[in-house]
Amino acid sequence: MKNILSRLYEHDKLSRAEAKAILVGIAENHFNEIQVAAFTTVYNMRPITLSELQGFRDALLELCIPLDLQGVDTIDVVGTGGDGKNTFNISTASCMVVAGAGYKVSKHGSYGVSSAVGSSDVLLQLGYKFTNDQDTLRRQLDTANMCFLHAPLFHPALKAVVPVRRQLGTKTFFNMLGPLVNPVQPRFQLFGTFSMELLRMYQYIMQQSGRRFAIVYALDGYDEVSLTGDFKICTNDSERILSPRELGFALVKQSDLHGAIPLRKQGISFCRCFKIKPRRPRKTPCWPMPAWQSRSSARSARWRIASRKPAKASKADVLTSFCGNYWKSVLRFLPCSPASLRLKNDDL
Question: Which residues contact 269 (CB under 8 A, 6 or more apart)?
Fold first, then answer.
């Protein structure tokens, strides 16, 4: 690592094979945390090259735990984060909308590091339990049109850098890698990037993959389509710059989109966004029953029933029940029936 750092400090660049070998070494704990921190911060001082990004991606995909969805075509909607805008977790909400409309979604995400809240943080607040069990994830996909791949469970290589990333608290090249290393490698992907340079690299990598994709970047810095100004969108076939007005929306100020919502309230905010009434825990008395209440047998019986502990939730996946209730709310806002939403693959 010493020789590699010396080269990088002299503005040298790594080949694709060298980048892959270094990340494999980090995953296998060949380097200490100080060396890993020094290595990651290099790419905050100079742009990452295409060959380096490809090499890092090769390493993570080689080391990841694969997920076989048995030929089911899915889509992932994911942003790099790291834009510093502190907005609502839009990609996770978008995935739920797509799943509610009847499409299969294999969402890949993790905890927020450089951003306030990550997709894993939101789903954790909703009560979802992370798993890498293939049967469970396939069942979720069948029943709720959506499964969630919690990155640390599928990429053991990332465990070595999690402490470093949290202590740094800034975006690193791992932000750039996350959207590219979905273990499913879904047939359709919608990306959001925090820079135009990264958009170009994503475009090249996805063109080589042969899969259908769209990449968006708001010209004022958001890693998603924003109502604050024009945004660029690149697909397999075209590139365009669009404005919110062309989509029928009025422009808003950046302060209007600032989403500094406390982590503990993220789940409630999602329910409100989708017009779902969040479930509240049943309030039960936690003090001894007064003597006067035991005088009436009927009243005592009612009190005992109310004070019982609620039954344990079934082992059915929380995400399944959430999406199952949610899609009915989504369809109220759609101008057509669910059957007419079956678009062709090219339309995605």
Answer: 88, 261
pLDDT tens-digit readout, 14-60: 999 999 999 999 988 899 889 988 998 898 888 899 999 999 999 99
**Three-class secondary structure of residue 28 per DSSP:** coil
Is residue 76 within 8 Å of 189, Cβ to Cβ? yes
Structure letter (DSSP) for residue 116: S
Q: Kindly report the pTM of this predicted structure.
A: 0.74
The DSSP secondary structure of 33-47, one letter per residue, reads: HHHHHHHHHHHHHSP
Residue 347 neighbours by CB distance under 10 Å = 7
Quote the tokens at residue 140.
């979720």
Laid out side by side, the sheet with 239-242 consists of: 146-150, 105-109, 75-79, 188-192, 212-218, 231-235, 239-242
Contact assessment for residue 96 and residue 274, using Cβ atoms and an 8 Å cutoff: yes
Question: Is the distance from CB of 20 to CB of 14 less than 8 angstroms?
Answer: no
The number of residues in the chain equals: 348
Closest CA to 76 of 167, 188, 225, 151: 188
Strand partners, 233: 216, 240
DSSP code at position 173: H
Residue 222, SS3? Answer: coil
Name which of 123-127, 132-136, 192-196, 277-281 the model is least confident about.
277-281
